Each structure stands twice: as C-alpha cells, then as structure tokens.
C-alpha cells in the first residue's frame, strides 16, 4: 500500500508544525494527542 506511508508522512509533517503550539497551550492535552499519534502511526505501519 503506497497511500499509507505517504499519508503518514504528510500527517507527521503537519504534526511537527502543530505540536509546539499545543505543548505551549496545554501539556496534558499534548501528551494525550502524542499517544493518539503513536497509536495512529502503529496502525499505519501495520496496515
């Protein structure tokens, strides 16, 4: 599946941009989203 890795790359790039803003706002929220991103990354890599 070629769409998976590409989608993950685009998502990761946007996450790198968004993460510092979220961390500046709410650390607890950022940690929660970190966990979601990790689980999403695992799903993408296993599919």
Q: Secondary-structure element sequence? A: HH
Helical/strand content category: mainly alpha
How widely separated are the two ends?
Answer: 8 Å
Overall tally of domains? 1
Proportion of residues in helical segments: over 70%
Task: Give the DSSP E fraction (strand runs of 2 or more residues).
Answer: under 5%
Query: Mean of the pLDDT scores?
Result: 73
User: Helix count?
Assistant: 2
Quick one: overall form? elongated
Low-confidence stretches: none
- Biggest sheet record: none
Radius of gyration: 12 Å
Q: How many beta-strand runs?
A: 0
How would you characterize the overall build of this protein?
By secondary structure, the protein is mainly α. It has one domain. It is 91% helix and 0% strand. It is built from 2 helices and no strands. The chain has helices at 3-25, 27-46. The radius of gyration is 12 Å and the shape is elongated. The mean pLDDT is 73.
Secondary structure topology:
Layout: H1 3-25, H2 27-46
Helix pairs in contact: 1-2
How would you describe this structure in keywords?
47 residues
Write a brief caption for the model.
The protein is an all-alpha fold. It is 91% helix and 0% strand. The longest helix is centred in the first third of the chain and has 23 residues, at 3-25.
